[in-house]
Amino acid sequence: MGFGSVKPSSEMLDFIRKSGGYAVLDGGFATELERYGANLNDPLWSAKCLIDSPHLVKRVHLDYLEAGADIIITASYQATIQGFEAKGFTTEESEALLLKSVEIAREARDIYYESVGNRTNLRKCPILVAASVGSYGAYLADGSEYNGDYGEAVILATLKEFHRRRVQVLAESGADLIAFETIPNKLEAQAYAELLEEDDIKIPAWFSFTSKDGVNVVSGDSILECASIADSCEKVLAVGINCTPPRFIHGLILSIQKATTKPILIYPNSGETYDAQTKEWIQSTGVSDVDFVSYVNKWHDAGASLIGGCCRTTPNTIRAISKTLSKGSAAQPSEPVTSLPIRYQLVK
Ligand SMILES: [Zn+2]
Predict the structure, then answer these.
(1) What residue stretches are annotated with the Hcy-binding domain (predicted)?
(2) Where are the strands (E) in the chain, listed by range?
């Protein structure tokens, strides 16, 4: 199934409609890897497991699929060619590791489909694999993805150059879409939008920003301006917020709606705060799964249609979100989708 001349955002709306009015995203990926014993204290963070424990990456994808995720996000958040090269990998090996992140997610999806067997017919929609692209700040691994402060030396061209090859490789990887996650500022959103257009990227993308005050994105740039950049880019199929405390989500959904009619995605963290110095989450401020899930129908009613969790959320959170939305949603799938996952193809 190809997009033809149809806009990605309307294709996503169709996907959501077929899913019964919403789709469930997965939850914290690195969090789960750590729960399985992975040590992520490394500049590559979760991407380190692509090198030393791919079996855990597959396991975590499967856990989220079993918990009810309709869209799974690859372990490439902090996987960059520059980061792998710094570890001594060649450019070719680094690109192969990026591809591997998508291969593992696709394998997990195949295993899941096989495991549910005939019950696949009961699925409301195909499962999508979203190739994660974390921000430049995530590569720096100094916490600047949470303040968006890259200094004056980093200009639009720097960010485009930094991300270009990685985006090209992931676009040809067999993923269904690219998930630009935890975008901390306007400049990086602009860089992604220009790359998507100039490099004739053949798969669509979502733009997901991060906020720490519920008003602006973490750099202080206006969420309205950020969402407008996403709105203007035809290859962007959904716009939203991730890795942001649950208490800010409702207001941010209302703000994003002022800038775009594209589907809105939200996958908040647990509400705990990340300490970039100690590289630890401060536990005391978080909300429990029960509290988290109590917001979910409110977010859906406010207009979010793609809902999941980010750091410190778990398969239990996703299971609870899936259950809550299925109870709260009056809409039923309008038609069963029995085919294997669609591969989005943009034809210019
Ligand atoms: Zn996160």
Answers:
(1) 11-325
(2) 23-24, 71-73, 128-133, 177-183, 205-209, 236-242, 264-267, 273-275, 280-282, 304-307
